[in-house]
Amino acid sequence: DELLESDQQSQETLYYRGTVELYAQGNPQKALTYFQQALAKDPKFVPALYDTAVAYRNIGDVEKAIETYEKALKIHPRFPEALSNLGGQYFRSGKFQEAVQSLEKAVKIFPNFIQALSNLGAVFNKLELFEQALPHLKKTVQVNPEFAIAHYNLGNAYFGLHQFQEAHTAF
Fold first, then answer.
1. Cα–Cα distance measured from residue 32 to residue 15, given in angstroms and rounded to the nearest whole number
2. In three state form, how does the secondary structure of the chain look?
3. Range 51-58 contact pairs with CB under 8 angstroms and sequence separation of 24 or more
4. pLDDT in tens, 120-139
5. How much is the pTM?
6. Residue 158: which residues within 8 A CB-CB, separation 6 or more?
7. Handedness of CA 99, 79, 31, 120 (dihedral sign)
8. How far apart (Å, rounded) are the C-alpha atoms in residues 53 and 153?
9. How many CA atoms are closer than 13 Å to the CA of 75, on its beta-carbon side?
10. For residue 3, pLDDT beyond 50
């Protein structure tokens, strides 16, 4: 009984309860409770930090999401999903240069990371750097032709370059 009780309160068990709440139940607020309990046992438990940031993102707290992704990346700087998600949060908060830096790091670590490639293209589109957006978006569509948002972003890049036939084809 003592072993069962200690296992139920382990950081791993608390973490997995949080992931069930976050991903299966769609309850980021309750997930945060479990993640915070896991992090109280080990503040450098990167999976719990990462999913804490995801939970903050899901409840719309961009600043806490950014802060928590940054904490995770201080411990594990080559975590491409955290880099990509951090880039997405920077993008949403208007920090476009930070978004580019974070997304470029994610792509350098994992060159076929379609979400990071597409988001990088979207940031370049927002900055009206359409030529820079094209290679990332073309690669995204090449790696996954079914990725609809990448086609949309690619069409926007071509449109920004006044290449209307290519834009039409991409859309």
1. 10
2. CHHHHHHHCCHHHHHHHHHHHHHHCCCHHHHHHHHHHHHHHCCCCHHHHHHHHHHHHHHCCHHHHHHHHHHHHHHCCCCHHHHHHHHHHHHHCCCHHHHHHHHHHHHHHCCCCHHHHHHHHHHHHHCCCHHHHHHHHHHHHHHCCCCHHHHHHHHHHHHHCCCHHHHHHHC
3. 51/15, 51/18, 51/19, 51/22, 53/82, 53/85, 53/86, 54/22, 54/28, 54/85, 55/18, 55/22, 55/28, 55/29, 55/31, 56/28, 56/32, 57/85, 57/89, 58/22, 58/28
4. 999 999 999 999 999 999 99
5. 0.87
6. 130, 134, 164, 166, 167, 170
7. positive
8. 26
9. 15
10. no
pLDDT of 6 over the 60 cut: no
Q: What is the pLDDT of residue 9?
A: 80
